[in-house]
Design goal:
The chain has six helices and six strands. α3 crosses α4.
């Protein structure tokens, strides 16, 4: 990370500005929206993201830039957008349209309920493989049936009884 960029937690509750800059010690830290190219690792690859509207805290005195949780959220959204992955809102809308609880959906998808919860909160980005599974699951009743966990699986058009 370049010298003029640091990661900073914004703390709990609303922040009152200006705030003292930890780099120069002056009271010049304020919210800002900047253009930034950011490298983000996902699924074992590094992606370069050009973000025009990155929310940060920036010191008006020394120019130091501090990332916040809002910065992280915007970076994750930009990565999802660049890779064409489902957003948390799209996942939630699909679950609601299928009237599936998070717990039931997680069970059928073969992931931990906590993992699905992290996808829905935006705290974690699903892999490309899981995104493909989610899309198939949402789009195709036969996929949902095959992942139902009921003990009956379809294989190449035939019904096969699976021992539990």
């Amino acid at each position: 990370m370049p010298k003029n960029e640091k990661s900073a937690m914004t703390g709990v509750g609303p922040r009152k500005y200006p705030v003292r800059c930890v780099e120069c010690g002056k009271t010049g830290l304020r919210p800002a929206v900047i253009h930034r190219e950011v490298k983000k690792n996902h699924d074992g690859r590094v992606y370069l993201l050009a973000i025009d509207d990155l929310p940060v805290n920036r010191c008006g005195d020394c120019g130091e830039v501090f990332y916040t949780t809002d910065s992280d959220d915007r970076i994750n959204a930009a990565l999802r957008e660049q890779l064409g992955l489902l957003s948390p809102e799209q996942i939630r809308a699909n679950l609601e349209s299928l009237r599936l609880s998070q717990k039931k959906a997680a069970e059928r998808l073969g992931v931990a309920p906590e993992t699905l919860s992290r996808w829905l909160s935006g705290a974690m980005i699903q892999s490309r493989a899981m995104d493909n599974l989610l899309r198939s699951f949402f789009a195709c009743a036969e996929v949902r049936e095959n992942l139902s966990g009921s003990g009956t699986k379809r294989r190449f058009g035939e019904v096969v009884r699976v021992k539990s």
